[in-house]
Amino acid sequence: MKPVEINQAWSGVEKCKLCSIRHLVLFADLNEDDFQHLHHPIKEVEFKTGSILYKRNDTINYVYTIRSGLVKLVHYLPNGSYRITRLLRQGDLAGIEALNGSAYLQHAIAMQETSVCKIPVKNIQQLNNESAQLYKQLTARWQKVQSDADIWLTHLTMGSSKHRVAHLLIYLAGDKTNNEFFLPSREDIGALLAITTETASRIIAEFKREDLLKSQKNLASIDRSKLKLIL
User: Cβ(121)–Cβ(61) under 8 Å?
Assistant: First the structure.
């Protein structure tokens, strides 16, 4: 983990203004006056693959905007296995439950090299008290959590194993024009879809044989139109 601290609120504002994903992040709608209410330093932090952003029931002090990379929210089961309850991508907010005063509900773990803005909860609480601009973005973040939960329930944990893997690949590919995306490990795919690692490996191999999926190391691409035909 490599932090780069923004020691003054205004320097953070300048970075926000130049941010290439400004339209996606929590502070997208804030104006210059709003940033005067930021009294606690924001940190840019880089996490290596496998690094932990936070653990379940950790003391809540921060939320995290994902600038780049991929983060999995993991729930560990008493038998030692685990389930991945959600994936967070560029623009998503990790630790959003902190804004309700709840404990972190899962472990947040970087699946690949990931860059985040580490935002003190106190900053958000202060902005909520002093500015109306943040409300729209917070509402949008909660709505996305609900939307992602619906996707998980309706597409990624129901139906045949082959359908689940197909839906996951399409979800991971998103709307990228080059169609290239990060492919999780077979174990993580199993934990995402509530199937065994062996089943995930078998289906991935089948999709490769049928030219529905191409992959090299952790990067993959799909034939989206053909993959949709099996759904």
Answer: yes
**What is the mean pLDDT, run by run of 10 residues, along the chain of 231 residues?**
43 50 51 55 86 90 89 92 91 83 88 90 70 61 71 83 94 78 96 96 97 92 92 84
Instruction: Spell out the domains of the chain, with CATH numbers in brackets.
Output: 2-147 (2.60.120.10), 157-228 (1.10.10.10)
Question: Which pLDDT value is given to residue 193?
Answer: 95
Please tell me whether the overall predicted TM-score, pTM, comes out greater than 0.90 for this model: no
Judge contact between 82 and 74, C-beta under 8 A: yes
pLDDT at 10 (0 to 100): 36
